[in-house]
Amino acid sequence: MFKKLLKIDKRFLIVLALLVGVFLSFSTVKTMAYLDSPGFCQNCHTMKSQYASFMDSTHAELQCNDCHLPHESETGKLFFKARAGMTHIYFNTLGTEDIPDVIHATDRTKNIMNENCISCHQSTLTNVSHDAKDSCISCHKTVPHGKGFKDDHFNKPPKSGELLENKGGF
What we know:
With about 170 residues, the chain is mostly helical.
């Protein structure tokens, strides 16, 4: 078999190898993009309410992992994603009785989400005082998830002095 491969024109083998490489790269990129998407994340029945509230939020154009994964390095992101994914697979297959009714982020995930909030909203932090709490989700815990996060107050403009009084939060 190996001798037959050596007899094939080298240019043909190079072109074939390049085409296979392009196909594998393209399929890997598409697969990773799908695994980052809200459509993939909502496949688990425990994420239905989070998905619904997310799709009705101002952040609906983002991918779940824009907020929930670290962005310092691709390796760190993939490691964190694999670790979380294995936990999710375990709970959704073997540990279904251990799945809580309400899912809360771990402390590690909260830190990552806070760093990602700050990264995206840096201009807001320089324009509005945000020293009231220790993390973004202390005040904004229902953004973009949360039952009834768009209450009657959401679409009304702030009253005079309200933002200053609440240091930018609600």
